[in-house]
Amino acid sequence: MNVLSAPPPGFSLASRRGLPVLLLALWAAAPALAQPASPCVATLEVAQANYVNQEFAQAEALLRECLNRPDMDDQTAIAVHRLLTLVYLRQDDLAEARQSVVRLLGVSFEYEPDPVEDPPAYVALVESIKEQLRVEREAVALPEEPVPPEEVPRDSVAVPAPLPVLPPPPVEAVRAYRAGPALHAYATVGAGSYGGERGRAADWLVGEFTANSGVTLSLGASFCLNPTVAAALTYRLHHIPRLLTLRSADRNSPVMADRENPIREDDSSKWVHLVALLGRAYYRPLGRSASYVDLGVSASVSRINGNTRTGFGPRGGVGLDVAVTPEIGAFLEMSATIILPGDAVDHIATSGGSDILTFAEVGVRYRLKAW
After folding, report:
1. Distance (Å, rounded) from C-alpha 284 to C-alpha 287?
2. pTM exceeds 0.85, yes or no
3. How far is CA 261 from the centre of its chain?
4. N or C: which end of the chain has fewer CB within 10 A?
5. Confidence class of residue 254 from pLDDT cuts 50, 70 and 90?
């Protein structure tokens, strides 16, 4: 027997006949295996990089180019609509963001946002519009033969007009006002108490605060680096009714040259000016309400008998910030400032090396610009 002419073990005649069939099947499958990826995949990656770099106009132009292509698959179309919605949200264009979500759901109504990877405002918007469209679908009977999706351009999916008024935005959407980077302006009104040589002593802290208190007003600006950390600059005008009150210590003060009338009210002021530079840290900032702490430094200016005095010292405070809309918030704050030296505010120092000013106030904060 010729060993060289014998087929290898296990290689039967049926196997030899099946070989051409196998080769033919591989040849037929080759075009499918070499099928290129969706034409917008690379464009989508560039648009994503533009979005991260806050180049929103460039990202929007690239994404709109993709939407005009007829050969884009559904998975890529969903990714394009998602990123386009995020671009609109970052630019506070809620109307365009809503329409982009409607078009996304026109590609796949079963689409679900990722609560971990997607921004909270995006998740809330998608869920809200999806629920709204679901209610409309249940109220209106669907046509027996719907138009196949392939025959409807993706950028012209019908948008319900007019859309019903949505309920007030949920917590996830409202808390966007605290996100950063963003610039805020704020104003406060409240009461401030004076602790110094001209102050009135009381048995407990609340009584002492009330006995020496006066109105306080402030204006300020804050810059949120992110939802947790912010920096603020504040100007405060504090009225101290007892700042010009005569006490025995006044007659021993070298700045009071006229012993018969040691304080000349026409040449003095009960208003103290304060400027503070602060750092702020929020606790659990992603909810509708968030508590925070302030630490910083403050400078003061006061005037008595024509003499202007300045002081400087640390300031600390605590507060509760509540988001009302994505642009507006309200807050409640309590703070204290220690002013050095002891005669900086009241121009006398007989019992200590500093004056203490404490404040309780309410305020409104408005987001001017977000990046």
Report:
1. 7
2. no
3. 55
4. N
5. low
Q: How many Cα neighbours within 13 Å face the side chain of 26?
A: 6
**Residue 133: predicted pLDDT:** 85
pLDDT digits (tens, 9 = 90+) for 214-235: 999 999 999 998 888 999 999 9
Q: Is it the case that residue 58 has pLDDT exceeding 50? A: yes
Cross-strand pairs, 289: 322
How far apart CA 126 and CA 120 sit, in angstroms, is 10
- Angle between helix axes 94-107 and 74-90 (nearest 10 degrees) is 170
Helix (H), strand (E), coil (C) string for the chain: CCCCCCCCCCCCHHHHHHHHHHHHHHHHHHHHHCCCCCCCHHHHHHHHHHHHCCCHHHHHHHHHHHHCCCCCCHHHHHHHHHHHHHHHHHCCCHHHHHHHHHHHHHHCCCCCCCCCCCCHHHHHHHHHHHHHHHHHHHHCCCCCCCCCHHHCCHHHCCCCCCCCCCCCCCHHHHHHHHCCCEEEEEEEEEEEEEECCCCCCCCCHHHHHHHCEEEEEEEEEEEECCCCEEEEEEEEEEECHHHHCCCHHHHCCCCCCCCCCCCCHHHCCCEEEEEEEEEEEEECCCCCEEEEEEEEEEEEEEEECCEEEEEEEEEEEEEEEEECCCCEEEEEEEEEEEEECCCCCCCCCCCCCCEEEEEEEEEEEEEEEEC
Residue, of 238 and 38, whose pLDDT is higher? 238
First to last CA, the chain: 86
User: What CA–CA distances, in Å, run from 133 to 98, 119, 130, 234, 367?
Assistant: 12, 21, 5, 46, 31
Nearest-CA neighbor of 293 among 278, 310, 280? 280
CB atoms within 10 A of CB 129: 21
Q: How far is CA 74 from CA 29, 83, 103, 109, 224, in A?
A: 23, 14, 12, 12, 38
What length is written for the chain? 371
Separation between Cα atoms, residue 62 and residue 79, nearest integer Å: 13
Higher local confidence (pLDDT), 367 or 250: 367
